[in-house]
Amino acid sequence: VKVRNLKISTGGIQVVLLRKEDANKIGVRHGDRICVESGKKKAISIIDITDDSKLIKKGEIGFFKEINELMKLKTGNKVSLSIITKPRSVYHIAKKLRGERLNEEDMNEIIKDITDKKLTDIETTYFVSACYMQELTNREIISFIHAMINNGKKLNFGKKIVADKHCIGGVPGNRTTCIVVPIIAAAGYLIPKTSSRSITSPAGTSDTMEVLCDIMLSISDMKKVVKSTKACMVWGGAMDVAPSDDILIKVEHPLSLDPIGQMLASVLAKKKAVGSTHCLIDIPVGKGAKIESRIKARKIKRKFEKVGKAIGMKVKVTITDGSEPIGNGIGPALEARDLLWTLKKDKRGSKVLLDKGTYLAGKLLKLLGEPKPFKLAKKIVDSGLAEKKFFEILKAQGIRYNDANKIPIGKYRASITANHSGKIKAIDNRTISRIARLAGAPSDITAGLYIYTHKKQKVSKGDILFTIYSNSAMKLKCAKDYALEKSGYVIK
Amino acid sequence: VKVRNLKISTGGIQVVLLRKEDANKIGVRHGDRICVESGKKKAISIIDITDDSKLIKKGEIGFFKEINELMKLKTGNKVSLSIITKPRSVYHIAKKLRGERLNEEDMNEIIKDITDKKLTDIETTYFVSACYMQELTNREIISFIHAMINNGKKLNFGKKIVADKHCIGGVPGNRTTCIVVPIIAAAGYLIPKTSSRSITSPAGTSDTMEVLCDIMLSISDMKKVVKSTKACMVWGGAMDVAPSDDILIKVEHPLSLDPIGQMLASVLAKKKAVGSTHCLIDIPVGKGAKIESRIKARKIKRKFEKVGKAIGMKVKVTITDGSEPIGNGIGPALEARDLLWTLKKDKRGSKVLLDKGTYLAGKLLKLLGEPKPFKLAKKIVDSGLAEKKFFEILKAQGIRYNDANKIPIGKYRASITANHSGKIKAIDNRTISRIARLAGAPSDITAGLYIYTHKKQKVSKGDILFTIYSNSAMKLKCAKDYALEKSGYVIK
């Protein structure tokens, strides 16, 4: 059949359009999957049906943009079609749902099919549910890691020591990566950091960094950046390292799920695939953070260090205070602005963010074998070397802003004030995240919160607690209405 | 914005198309949900994006067929759009995934949002997964039933006694409904039977009946049929009775899941909503049937009878032999043909199917209070009254075939023969179903199997066990390859 490129995009799902007569001839219906082939290029797609000859003619197949981008064919090119039977991995997923364990081969087939987009969203969702409810064993996690690494690209920087860090998340504004990476690089270590986009928060490190510079680097561009600066801060998804992870994250998003075993596998697979040898993991614990209890944090710490050892990586876990948002900005642009202020020691920056980043850098320098790690980290920050290195990396990745005041933020604004006077006892991370997300973060990068008051501070009735920003009047209203009902602040 | 109807159908998912500029103005992206309103009509839809002015102009919204059918507007009509925030029910689903229980109100919100199509496939899948892995309590099942009944139409036939039956399924070819319903109606009772389409089998009762007559009746047409014949055999989905169920079934389909609690709720909600007072439930037990152990069957029996009582219905469960396919035809058209042969006592029909149907009718007559129920059922069959009543119902619903030999079946055929001589010890239901489904059943109604040999029969090497039918040469090949490797027959 002949291709006709249509200018319709779904935002992810791969769709082709067939004429009713053609679909009947092949024996497929709308919603079925089909494999489109041309030479070595191959794509799995869902079928939509039409009987409108203005859209496509008989003997033609309409490519939605997602398929067009994969196949890169022109209207009129020929492709062959073949029917896809249900992949075997679907039966492995059903097995896991029934409570049975998955072996190395099952896991590999599932991850391979997810990577090749052979599974539908519904099937992938069942896999995530199963991992969430039937907790993965360490052995399953190790299989998962190997499957993720093997079904993606692997990087090699040709160095004996490659440092890395990761934060479990759930604490809004917690952009310590952007402090730790320049410190470690300034200390002379290689730290090619890849991050993912937000799962449950108003912004992931990648979302925030994208405001400041390009993060969608190819592997060769990333290597150039690392060669010249010893570091990078790029989006892992663009690396094609463990590409299945981004598909899984997309499915986790609607319910803000993040099953422990899968999270562990995802983190360590990405670290291992980029060649990391020493990795610090930060688990912030607090109300509304991803991990709310120290007992659970310690359980995950043990699991991380054990699985890390099994795959030949030095992994150290540190449990930190996650009882309130770190930093003042929440949401991509607001966090980026906060970060620049903080690194430049502008008084509008966040001392808490700077201190936490410096502490984590010290922890990582210790794991790397430095004799006086915390002193070293502090010296690099105080001397301005960290700031210098940060801008060096931004420049190498294609800097967008070096002046915090020039970063555009949401044009619709609303301030939330204290209902009564008193001392701030607690700030719920989940509520703050929810308000920022209702305002449009992270897809609206200018949306989010700027927090004026933190834990232990005293406020008077009518004082501004935070301001909400959004580029959509409707979304601002949603966020404001929610915040007026529930601000997340406990003032006593 | 102005409507433009597009002739594209997805097969279920509700999609509208927006121009990129318009989407940016409103603050939505592809994949977001939007509410389309016109007067009292309202529909929730997923957004696709285009920048092609040939498809739609600025200020226009493109309706895919699914939305067009719901809204019934003409190109050029005006509609208003509003952004949808994440429904609260998503948080209830997350709660259930974490292992917490759902109360009456949570359950009602979930079912309401599923019914209103406010939940995406991914979110609905999480709900099904949660019900599958965190087994619903009896209290949750009762809430589920009330939620399903309240979010759909209710029927009232104005009679004190309304009989009904249901089979748990998993045994291919098991079309006893079509024997039981005419017997009960011929005995003078009202039995307005609604069925669903296939979940895990090559055909549901609705799929098979649709070959013979119209099953997509409106409530008023169904009432006319029941008034004139005392019975009907229609598709429940077209009744708008517990409409959420068909959305759930669609999501269960890919993994052939059917969580016990949800199944119980679905069955009893539909029975209660159509006003049934006395209901017989058949649980076939056997290898590859939905229920494989008698212990589990008895557990479900107790749950059914207990929950039935709690919602004020007389429910009786009978556990039957499900150790091999019942009847000779598997797949919609092949089962329909088999059924006509069986009722007309043609020698190509199935005695086992007739006997089982008659037995179940006896059981139901007993529940209805008949003094000699089994004798009565047999008399109705032997006298030809059952056959007469069956055709009376078909005619009232718009008969398509009364001659079995005229029903078209798959034009591509392949016979599977015995590898060696011996006695048939077992036939695995699941394998038979899978072969029929690979051949294209139920979406290809002509696809499936005709079984020549049953359990306990002796066969010689080379004897035909069954013939596979399909309208797609590719699908026939898939089914045949699978059957050659694994026929489901144990011959010793």
Q: What is the topology?
A:
The structure is a homodimer of 492-residue chains.
Chain A: E1 2-5, E2 8-9, E3 15-19, H1 20-26, E4 33-38, E5 41-50, E6 60-63, H2 65-71, E7 80-83, H3 89-97, H4 104-115, H5 121-133, H6 138-150, E8 163-167, H7 177-186, E9 191-195, H8 205-212, H9 219-229, E10 231-235, H10 244-252, H11 260-273, E11 278-285, H12 294-310, E12 314-321, E13 329-330, H13 332-343, H14 351-367, H15 373-382, H16 385-397, E14 412-417, E15 422-427, H17 429-438, E16 448-451, E17 458-459, E18 464-470, H18 473-485, E19 489-491
Parallel strand pairs in A: 1-6, 3-5, 8-11, 9-10, 11-12
Antiparallel strand pairs in A: 3-6, 4-5, 4-7, 13-16, 14-18, 15-17, 15-19, 16-18
Polypeptide structure, described:
- The structure is a homodimer of 492-residue chains.
- By secondary structure, chain A is of the alpha/beta class.
- Helix content of chain A is 42%, strand content 20%.
- In chain A, the strands form five sheets. A six-stranded mixed beta sheet of chain A has the order 1-6-3-5-4-7. In chain A, strands 13-16-18-14 form a four-stranded antiparallel beta sheet. A three-stranded parallel beta sheet of chain A has the order 8-11-12, with helices on both faces.
- In chain A, helix 14 crosses helix 15.
- Chain A is globular and about 75 Å long.
- At the A-B interface, strand 2, strand 5, helix 3, helix 5 and helix 18 of A face strand 2, strand 5, helix 3, helix 5 and helix 18 of B.
- Strand 5 (41-50) of chain A pairs antiparallel with strand 2 (8-9) of chain B.
